[in-house]
Backbone:
């Protein structure tokens, strides 16, 4: 089974990076757009305007367009038309280019949405929009009634509408299941080289190749699984999920991205390591969960992975993929990897930047349903050609971010990228104009961290009670799959 990704975001309190405090050039963070619903990937036009996808916040569930989440203890995933494509002008204005796009999110709070996932221009100025998904298209399509999910479209920017359908990744997954695991798809990010789109899918655990003029799937390759000894993993102890709809059993462990799963001949042990207690058993999954892709200076592609539940710290990998979809791991550093990567970018000097969605396993910081109880700081790490790392930015306003683009001495990313109403697009100016190096933002004090933890604990029960009451209300109204 795979923990298929819906998507990924919220609060702050800078912590010491697990990679260690390092020197970085003077940098500053500014907010370009705020109050967004699950912002994701984006691109610049020739004039410097930004076209940003927002995955929306799903629906209310009142129309019955809901299915059980495969990753969040059967909190309903409900469909709505709340996704959008936005334009952020060079003058700072924000306008909606295409409204009312399909969206699928955890209800009632609209978190972890799938919908508009990425937007890119080709070299001729043609525009393309990638739509994510969050479940099994073989069984959920008729219920969700959102036929644009899991597809790639050409975009008519003049009229503000989806145009020609280029590729249907969801249907290909149903018919071919290229990674040999369960049927879930979630196209998450893409890049365009010449006349070809290369798309990473955190649900199907693959990279897709599609010719933009001809359409369809030209080629697909699955990312390798990573067997990890159970003794190396740290597990949460979840409360039992409560009553499960008749005929349904949890298909995967609870947690954020429903994107990875076991594959090949690897056996997936269940439960915590021997001697540790847990309230329920769940499978360990070993799949890659690719979430970021960018073209490297040599013409190949660098792909980042989020990794599998329980998202072990320091185990996320980077891959090099060529035009024929041959996949090789890079920057292994003896197995010392990253944590929950969601973006990659190169600067004009050929230096690689990678984005850690969170610096620690996400289940430590966010409860089921999205309540933040810990530190969800993100960090950006610069990786030299020999694998040497330098932390450029850590926390200090950067929280559960996703997607990374470099342009003219600055990095851009979607901040709080998995929550409704509070998402942002931010710019981090790297200060490459000769500024003296400074340390990365300092972590919050121990007292500050204790204060955050105490506040989270105090609000946990009242908020969770309201959430449970709302969920019961929704489940009474809709018939989940």
Residues:
């Amino acid at each position: 089974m795979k923990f298929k990704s819906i998507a990924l975001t919220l609060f702050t309190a800078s912590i010491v990076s697990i990679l260690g405090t390092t020197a970085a050039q003077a940098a500053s963070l500014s907010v370009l757009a705020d109050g967004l619903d699950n912002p994701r990937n984006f691109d610049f036009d020739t004039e410097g305007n930004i076209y940003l996808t927002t995955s929306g916040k799903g629906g209310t569930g009142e129309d019955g367009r809901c299915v059980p989440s495969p990753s969040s203890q059967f909190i309903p995933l409900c469909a709505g038309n709340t996704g959008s494509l936005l334009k952020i002008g060079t003058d700072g204005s924000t306008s909606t280019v295409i409204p009312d796009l399909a969206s699928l999110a955890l209800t009632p709070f609209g978190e972890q949405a799938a919908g508009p996932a990425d937007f890119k221009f080709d070299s001729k100025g043609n525009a393309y929009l990638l739509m994510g998904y969050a479940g099994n298209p073989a069984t959920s399509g008729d219920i969700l009634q959102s036929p644009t999910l899991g597809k790639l479209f050409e975009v008519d920017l003049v009229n503000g509408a989806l145009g020609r359908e280029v590729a249907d990744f969801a249907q290909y997954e149903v018919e071919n299941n290229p990674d040999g695991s369960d049927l879930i798809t979630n196209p998450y990010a893409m890049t365009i080289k010449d006349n070809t789109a290369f798309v990473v899918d955190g649900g199907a655990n693959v990279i897709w190749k599609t010719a933009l003029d001809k359409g369809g799937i030209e080629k697909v390759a699955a990312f390798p699984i990573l067997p990890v000894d159970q003794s190396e993993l740290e597990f949460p102890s979840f409360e039992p999920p409560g009553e499960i709809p008749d005929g349904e059993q949890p298909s995967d462990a609870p947690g954020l991205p429903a994107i990875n799963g076991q594959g090949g001949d690897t056996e997936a042990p269940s439960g915590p390591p021997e001697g540790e207690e847990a309230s329920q058993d769940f499978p360990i999954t070993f799949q890659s969960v690719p979430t970021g892709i960018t073209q490297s200076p040599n013409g190949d592609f660098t792909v980042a992975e989020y990794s599998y539940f329980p998202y072990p710290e320091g185990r996320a990998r980077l891959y090099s993929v060529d035009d024929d979809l041959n996949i090789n791991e890079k920057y292994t550093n003896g197995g010392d990897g990253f944590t929950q990567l969601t973006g990659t970018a190169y600067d004009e000097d050929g230096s690689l930047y990678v984005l850690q969605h969170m610096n620690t396993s996400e289940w430590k910081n966010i409860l089921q349903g999205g309540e933040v109880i810990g530190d969800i700081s993100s960090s950006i790490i610069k990786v030299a050609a020999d694998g040497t790392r330098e932390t450029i930015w850590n926390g200090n306003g950067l929280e559960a971010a996703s997607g990374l683009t470099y342009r003219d001495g600055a990095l851009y990313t979607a901040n709080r990228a998995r929550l409704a109403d509070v998402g942002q697009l931010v710019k981090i100016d790297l200060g490459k104009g000769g500024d003296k190096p400074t340390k990365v933002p300092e972590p919050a004090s121990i007292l500050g961290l204790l204060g955050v933890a105490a506040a989270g604990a105090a609000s946990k029960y009242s908020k969770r009670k309201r959430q449970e009451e709302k969920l019961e209300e929704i489940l009474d109204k809709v018939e989940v799959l």
Summary: The helical segments are 137-144, 169-176, 446-477.
